[in-house]
Amino acid sequence: MPCLLALLAVAFPRVAIVLLWLFSNFFTGLYHGIIIPILGFIFLPLTLIVYTYILRAYGGHLGTTQLVCIFIAVIFDLGLMGGGTFGRR
Fold it and tell me: Structural domain of residue 42, as residue ranges?
């Protein structure tokens, strides 16, 4: 089941965020306001999932491995947004 959720998160990150918010306590107590999760949901959903996981698992400590994971998530998010332009050419 966790592998299925990981596959869902990469393929449909906004759906995974909604499912995590509805059926788990993955996002509770990590953000002080609602602005960061909403902006992450709209602009960089996979990065929001990865950053929230790092906050939950490592207590907010960002080492080199965690920064690389966040960087890869940003690249994937930007690739998901711009992938349609290359396909239309």
Answer: 2-88
